[in-house]
Specification:
This protein is α+β, with helices and mostly antiparallel strands and about 290 residues long. Helices cover about 20% and strands about 30% of the residues.
């Protein structure tokens, strides 16, 4: 369709970083009645269920970011307790998921992208996930935008990867090659009792910030180089997060791509592309028991 071609052309031409940072300044501003007005409009436009939020009213939030990263009310989500399962890390919808084949992940029909590029361009980082499984979940504007752990894990590495800021949605997924491996992103690598897991927080147009709970804001400002942080996996300095614990958040966006080691997980067979996800619900079954990992 001509209108879709025009939308994609505009994505290539528009100053995406500049627009995103400008929106971010407003989202972080304590603008009084203007902030309240924007939040009220957003709630109505996207039919957001504020009944499940800890704070219910537009006037409860001093900035748009506070609203967008709103905390859920106690009991709004239940983390599946079965130790042989992993849970969805976010509210959203599955874009694609399945096996990693010859170092490639499926973006959309006719489009694949590189595991190694997605994880920051280092072969050693990507190697444990070759021939494993991946899942990509898109968060819509109406969704809860905090990201949680699908399984208990100890942080081993965090990588900031500079990139573009294309919008992330079905239209761009079907028309922009290497979308998730070309957008700005934060890669987090965890060791679990069942094998390694990487969670990639992908930026997009008007994503004002990507944060983790251990390091705070990673971007902005946007960088030009890949940065890597290594973390101790044992001792007092180790960062271990339990299944269901918050690990990060998006301010105005976007997508989480999770990769797992070979023979580690088997995805819920009832789920696939366009399946709505809810934090804490059944994501996948663990293939190997902890004692065998």
């Amino acid at each position: 369709m001509l209108v879709n071609k025009l939308k994609i052309a505009l994505q290539h031409l528009m100053p995406k970083h500049g627009i995103s940072r400008l929106v971010g300044k407003f989202a972080a501003a304590e603008a009084g009645w203007l902030t309240t007005k924007a939040i009220s409009y957003f709630i109505k436009a996207y039919d957001i269920n504020m009944a499940e939020a800890k704070l219910k009213n537009a006037t409860d939030f001093t900035t748009f970011n506070d609203f967008f990263t709103r905390e859920l009310a106690e009991g709004a989500r239940t983390i599946i307790a079965d130790p042989n399962t992993i849970c969805y890390p976010v509210d959203g919808a599955i874009s694609q998921q399945g096996p990693i084949v010859q170092g490639q992940l499926i973006q959309a029909k006719g489009f694949n992208y590189s595991l190694e590029t997605l994880l920051g361009g280092d072969q050693a980082t990507a190697a444990p996930f070759q021939d494993g499984e991946f899942s990509c979940i898109y968060l819509a504007p109406k969704d809860y935008h905090r990201i949680h752990m699908p399984i208990t894990g100890t942080l081993r590495e965090m990588i900031y990867v500079p990139g573009d800021l294309f919008s992330v949605n079905p239209l761009t997924a079907n028309n922009v090659p290497n979308l998730f491996a070309r957008n700005e992103r934060v890669v987090t690598v965890f060791d679990t009792a069942h094998g390694p897991m990487a969670m990639v927080l992908v930026g997009a147009t008007i994503v004002a910030s990507i944060e983790t709970i251990w390091a705070g804001t990673i971007t902005p400002p946007a960088g030009k180089d890949v940065f890597r942080w290594q973390y101790p996996t044992e001792g007092a300095g180790a960062i271990t997060l339990e299944k269901g614990a918050e690990m990060g958040r998006f301010k105005l966006g976007s997508t989480v791509v999770t990769t797992f080691a070979p023979n580690m997980v088997k995805f819920n067979p009832q789920a696939g592309p366009e399946t709505v996800t809810r934090l804490g619900e059944h994501y996948a079954d663990l293939v190997k028991l902890a004692a065998d990992a």
